[in-house]
Write a structure and sequence with these properties.
CATH topology: Ubiquitin-like (UB roll)
CATH superfamily: ASAP complex, SAP18 subunit
Strand order of the largest sheet: 2-1-5-3-4
Largest sheet: 5 strands, mixed
CATH architecture: Roll
Number of domains: 1
Number of strands: 5
Structural class: mainly beta
Strand content: 25-35%
Radius of gyration: 15 Å
Mean pLDDT: 87
Shape: globular
Low-confidence stretches: 132-137
Helix content: under 10%
Length: about 140
């Protein structure tokens, strides 16, 4: 008998929401069972890297393949302490360029099955808006 599949090896259905204005969706767009209309459903694994997820998104949106397109990833999750959703930015990638977050996995960011992934895509000619908190690199 083969060993049971661990959560790491089971594919999960990842519900991804994208924007192309470089900003994440507002949390109220996820309220009461509503979700934004830009949903992509991707079968993937907990150890999928941001780089791999970037290339899956690029398969769906050819315009995101342009060199210099910026992808900012965030996990959207239910807050157990209060009703509603919270967003946690986890990292970013760029088309055609290696970056420090490329090999980051969903698992390493405490992604849980049932969470959503929100990806803010910024076209190459528009710098992403400065994040509310600057992250030291």
């Amino acid at each position: 008998p083969h060993p049971p599949l661990s959560p790491q090896t089971c594919p999960l259905l990842l519900r991804v929401f994208t924007t192309n204005n470089g900003r994440h969706h507002r949390m109220d767009e996820f309220s009461r069972g509503n979700v934004p209309s830009s949903e992509l459903q991707i079968y993937t694994w907990m150890d999928a890297t941001l780089k791999e997820l970037t290339s899956l998104v690029k398969e769906v949106y050819p315009e995101a393949r342009k060199k210099g397109t910026h992808f900012n990833f965030a996990i959207v999750f239910t807050d157990l302490k209060r009703p509603g959703y919270r967003v946690k930015e986890i990292g970013s990638t760029m088309s055609g360029r290696k970056g420090t977050d490329d090999s980051m996995t969903l698992q390493s960011q405490k992604f849980q099955i049932g969470d959503y992934l929100d990806i803010a895509i910024t076209p190459p000619n528009r710098a992403p808006p400065p994040s509310s908190r600057m992250r030291p690199y």
